[in-house]
Amino acid sequence: MASIKEALKYPFANFARLFNYWWILVPVWGWLVASGYGLRVYEEIIKGKDKELPAIRPFTGLFKEGFFLIVVMLVLQIAVFIIALIPLLGWVGNVYYILIAPVLVAQIAVTKKIGDGLNVVDASKVVFNNFGEWIITFLKSLVVVLIWLIASIPIITMVVTIPAISWSQSYLWANYYREATKK
Description:
Layout: H1 4-9, H2 15-18, H3 29-46, H4 62-84, H5 89-111, H6 114-117, H7 120-129, H8 131-151, H9 158-182
Helix pairs in contact: 3-4, 3-5, 3-9, 4-5, 5-7, 8-9
């Protein structure tokens, strides 16, 4: 299981790649590339290549994979929104989404299929068969976010800490998925 220290160090192992996050500032094309790169980060960590962030180039596939991820997240968000309109069930739907979202991202990163990004049954099995580890990963993720937020107090550091939050959390959740699916 990944440690907080490893998650905090991961984005900085190749400092220049930390800034690949900022492709998100380029309208439309950048959103898709940044989303695809996020999937590449997950995929590489799940494969065990977790020493540093992967190279963003070649761009081959990033655009398409980013599109798939955005479609999956939109479908899930619409479903959660509709469920949220139902009293009490809406709260349960939001909690359930929080539980399975990192696993759904990992599934689409591994298989590159939209269907696996929407496969809540398999995601639920991974989460509930490894619920103790999920809670530990969630708590570690909160600690990492808190550390990076404190580091963001001098506003200028946000250029680094915002991407670091994303990549550190990806590191933790992708490692969770790798360990959970080994069993």
